[in-house]
Specification:
Helix content is 38%, strand content 16%. The protein is an alpha/beta fold and 287 residues long. It has an 8-stranded mixed sheet, sandwiched between helices. The protein is globular.
Length: 287
């Protein structure tokens, strides 16, 4: 018990320990916080090339103030073991295996970019497992520009190398003064955790994920009308990685969707506008 006059401080994203759970021969690395809130756990599904340290602390801590939140590394990525998945479908199966290994019978899904594609696939494969979904900076199978994400990503990797920038400055944010400033602040936030940081993604895992995105972009569109769960769709108005038209498409095709589009914002619109997005996400998840 804390001493008189002291309050127990919940761990923040910058310091919460990394744990692991084993499913078959795969050990999944994860971080978990907000358990004291109870309720339906929120599973975070991450973007291309991301590891645990790529989640915005403001968004994770903001959600964990009210909800039980868990983020994990995909198989073969970061501190997770195993062979990296090269299809969105396999990533969805892996996520379901992780969720069930944690003992959760129903969850909310928050998928960003590639993670939003994984979330859709989970909802199609295991509808009873999903209560609500947040789909940010993402698109449906067969969506505009998804099969060519590799070209956009690799182009920006090259120009980031030549300009001494982080590729996410180009990939996630607009090149306007507001977008550039938001990107710089976001990248600084990603460095707040100084101890026990995750391992960076290996090149072969990155290549596997690019293969998955290409196949997803070339896949026949799914019938999203069967996804009856409430969905919050969010993006910036100028997403170069997964064109914003895909967010409008998702909102039209999902029966219980609401759409938020942020101005002068790119793929990382939810990070740029985290002060607006977090309250919207909390309101959505609390219903």
């Amino acid at each position: 018990m804390p001493a008189s006059g002291q309050q127990m401080t919940a761990p923040a994203w910058r310091s919460v320990p990394t744990q692991s759970v084993t499913v078959g021969k795969v050990s999944y690395a994860y971080r978990e916080l907000g358990q004291q809130n109870g309720g339906t756990p929120v599973i975070l599904l991450t973007h291309l090339a991301a590891v645990l340290d790529n989640w915005d602390p403001r968004i994770v801590d903001g959600l964990a103030a009210k909800h039980h939140v868990i983020a994990f590394d995909n198989r073969g990525v970061g501190a997770s073991t195993g062979t990296p998945a090269n299809t969105i479908e396999q990533m969805a199966d892996d996520a379901v295996a992780f969720i069930k290994a944690k003992g959760f019978q129903q969850v909310d899904l928050f998928g960003f970019s590639m993670g939003g594609m994984v979330a859709q696939e989970i909802a199609l494969k295991e509808p009873a497992l999903v209560r609500r979904m947040i789909l940010a900076g993402t698109g449906p199978a067969g969506g505009e520009g998804i099969s060519t994400v590799a070209g956009v990503a690799n182009y920006d990797l090259i120009r980031a190398t030549f300009t001494g920038q982080d590729p996410k400055q180009y990939l996630f944010f607009t090149r306007t003064p507001g977008g550039i400033a938001a990107g710089q602040v976001f990248l600084t936030r990603l460095q707040e955790r100084t101890d026990n940081r995750d391992a960076e993604i290996a090149i072969w895992a990155y290549v596997s994920q690019l293969q998955a995105l290409k196949a997803w972009g070339e896949k026949r569109p799914s019938d999203l009308s069967v996804i009856k769960q409430p969905v919050l769709v969010a993006n910036g108005d100028n997403d170069r990685m997964v064109p914003t038209s895909n967010s409008y498409d998702l909102a039209r095709r999902l029966p219980s969707a609401q759409l938020v589009i942020y101005p002068d914002a790119g793929h990382g619109g939810i990070f740029q506008y985290h002060e607006d997005f977090v309250p919207k996400a909390l309101s959505f998840l609390s219903r």
